[in-house]
Structures are given as C-alpha cells and as structure tokens.
Amino acid sequence: MKYYLGVALVLFALVIIGSTFLPLLQAELGYHLREIEPQDQKDTLEPLDKDFGIVIPKIGANAHVIKNVNPYDARIYQSALSRGVAHAQGTALPGQKGNIFLFSHSSSDFLNAIRYNSIFYLLTKLEKGDLIKIYFEGKEYDYIVKGKQIVESNAIKYLTDKTTEENLTLMTCWPPGTSLKRLIVLASKNNPL
Fold first, then answer.
1. How confident is the model at residue 132 (pLDDT cuts 50, 70, 90)?
2. Is the Cβ–Cβ distance between 64 and 51 less than 8 Å?
C-alpha cells in the first residue's frame, strides 16, 4: 500500500512541476509547439525574429533562422540547430528568385522536441494550401504549401534545386526522432491578386 501511495505522490508532483514549468521552458526556448486550427492561420504569431525568422501558424512554430549554415558539416549545423532553424548556405534568401532551403530537427514526442529544439516537430501536419511566413530584414514573405514527400536521407536534389521561381523548401528527419529518411515540404511564394 505504501508503494502505491509513493507512486501516486511522485506522479502528482510531476504533473504539478510539468504544468508549472513547461510554459516557462517553451517561452525560454523561444518557440511554440501547439497545433492551431486552420481558421486561425490568419491570426499569426508575433515573430521572434524579424531579421530572419519563421512562423508556421498551423503548427504554432515560431523560431529564429540562422543564415548561411553549411549543411554538409555536422559540427556547424548541429550548433545552428540548437539555436533555431538553419538556412542552407548557398541557397536563396527571401525576396530572391531561387530555392530557399531551411532545415531543423524533428522528434518523436513533445518532451524530446523541447529537449532537442525540434522546431519542425509537427511539420508533417502541414497540407497543401497552408501558410508559412518568413521574416527577413524587417519584411514579411508569405509562402503557400504545394505538397510534401518522404525522401531518402541522401536525396540532395532539394538542396541544389535551381528554380527560377521564389520557392521555399523545409526539411526535417523522418520518422520523427530518427535519421532514416527526410520529410520535405515544398512551398511557393504567395502572389496575391
């Protein structure tokens, strides 16, 4: 009986600690991992970084983007990913023609997503027509999701895409928490009529 009472007290304490400190931890890490209903996409989050940041309203992602990160040097990109989303060196920047390539960690669950700064934790929830906002040098650039796909981990054609349009590619590991494959989300510049 004492054993069960002890377990119950420990679980109760964990719930109290989690409900108290989780919101603080999220705020400290500088991003949000919550799913937002599609109708809320118009009411976007205030970006953490207007010099170079990303906001994905549907999944509540809001993070800094680290510019010109070498995607082939694990030591360099792992350091960048601990601070936000990485922009692949040599790819376009918002407002330029070409492919803007951004990548970040994913994770298998919410707690590991926080632990490993997995900003793209819910990226798989994006669907055709969803909005992605990139902020760069004080300007807002809107992109609309065209599609997503799972590719092999060595598929680099998305990184080296030489398009003449202004496109955005987001990449993370798949399945979440592994490095077996990659989830690619393709988006194009939103050109309002």
1. very high
2. no
Q: What is the DSSP letter of 165?
A: S
Q: Which domains does the chain have, with CATH numbers?
A: 31-189 (2.40.260.10)
pLDDT tens, position by position, 66-110: 999 998 888 888 888 788 899 999 999 999 999 999 998 654 444
pLDDT at 180: 82
Sequence-ordered list of residues with C-beta below 8 angstroms from that of 118, at least 6 positions apart, any chain: 33, 104, 105, 106, 107, 112, 172, 176
CA–CA distances in Å: residue 132 to residues 23, 33, 47, 141, 157? 24, 15, 12, 8, 22
The confidence band for 121, taking pLDDT boundaries of 50, 70 and 90, is confident
Would you call 84 exposed, middle or buried from its count of C-beta atoms within 10 A (0-12, 13-18, 19+)?
buried
Dump the DSSP string for 137-149. Answer: TTEEEEEEEEEEE
Residue 168 tokens read as: 């955005």
Q: Burial of 112 by CB count in 10 Å (0-12 exposed, 13-18 middle, 19+ buried)?
A: middle
Place of tokens 């989303």: 85
